[in-house]
Amino acid sequence: MSIEIRKVATKRELRAFITFPETIYGNNPNWVPAPVFDDMGTLRKDKNPAFEFCEAEYWTAWKDGAMVGRIAGIINRRYIEKWGNKYARFGWIDFIEDFAVAEALVRTVEDWAKSKGMEGVHGPLGFTDLDREGMLVEGFGERATFATIYNHPYYSQYMERLGYAKDIDWVEFLVETPDAIPEKVLRVNEILAKRSGVRVIEWKNKKELLATYADQIFELLDEGYAELYGTTPLSEKQVKAYIGQYLGFVDPRFTKVMVDEQNKLAGFAITVPSLSDALYKCRGRLFPTGWARLLWAPQHPTTLDMLHPDDGPEPERDREWDQVFGDEPRAGDQHRHPGALEELFQAAAQTPPRLHQEALAGKGRRPPARGRPQPISGSRR
């Protein structure tokens, strides 16, 4: 039977679009769904401030009366202005193990992009670099985090058949935390802190953090990530939205900020208790019991997710500051004795001094790949 592509037009259809992956991964414990309310806020044009400079359409694929795939097409005008590439991007891509379904979805985005005057398509990408993005190419036996994408091995195989190639690797690490930080490390940490003039601020409540450092955190994020693949500067409205999304649930034991001699923010690490197990069990839904699981998980952590470590764009200071900063989340870890720390690094795009943290890894995990931009003129065969 032929495959039918339908454009998402209503809120009910958008919810079905968001929850579709459950039909593929519902019994796979390594899959971690995005919170439904989070995706709704991201994909709705009246909710996401990125639509000030982005446009997007969403499609679902149907076969034999059942939904069998989904895909989003996005055009980020700020990306085009910054990088000079007239590329559309695809994201939120999922499909059953049927090449014809994948082909129908990808060709739909390519045709849409061409109609908008675009010259290429790449992805999986979101509206900004803070959305879920990338395609898993290794580590299928590892559990995802709530900030990363999980997919089956056939996804990348189908994309290669469609003419796409890997453009960049992102690597995620699982770091086993010690029972205690060695005294020698603490002494070196103290010496480097004095030499570099930086110190870690101890804050006690979220209100204090938000009032003093929230805007600075996202300014530093823009600076530090400016040269990473596909990034675009955040607008004021986006910063306000992300402050609520990322800083609304931080814990002073695990999220650290560092200032220089002028008390200006010099670095930060947003680290949160893992929500992977809770999100899998509630399928990303708050009701009827999801809210309770999501409240319980941060109080009983065994794993932490380090989401956004950053110490600015100056590579010459990275090694010293990373040494000073790197021990702080682990020092905080000991209050709850989590067994591991998940650190997400966009490794291929980082400056070499930052990559020294690879040495802390017990094992490497999940290097997801973004698709190399596919020229629209050559994508259809």
Provide the number of structural domains: 2
Ranges where pLDDT stays below 50 over 5 or more residues in a row are 327-372, 377-381
Q: Based on Cα principal axes, name the global outline.
A: globular
Order of helices and strands: EHHHEEHEHEEHEEHEHHEEHHEHEEEH
Average residue pLDDT: 79
CATH secondary-structure class of the largest domain: Alpha Beta
Sheet with the most strands, sense and barrel status: 8 strands, mixed
Stated plainly, the CATH topology of the largest domain is called: Aminopeptidase
Provide an overview of this structure.
The relative contact order is 0.16. The chain folds into 2 domains: 4-169, Aminopeptidase (3-Layer(aba) Sandwich); 175-368, 3-Layer(aba) Sandwich (Aminopeptidase), CATH 3.40.630. The model is unreliable at 327-372 and 377-381 (pLDDT under 50). The chain has 13 helices and 15 strands. A hairpin with a 5-residue loop joins strand 10 (256-259) and strand 11. It is globular, with a radius of gyration of 21 Å. The chain is an alpha+beta fold. Strands 1, 2, 3, 4, 5, 6, 7 and 15 form an 8-stranded mixed beta sheet that branches. Strands 9-10-11-12-13-8-14 form a 7-stranded mixed beta sheet. Helix 1 crosses helix 3.
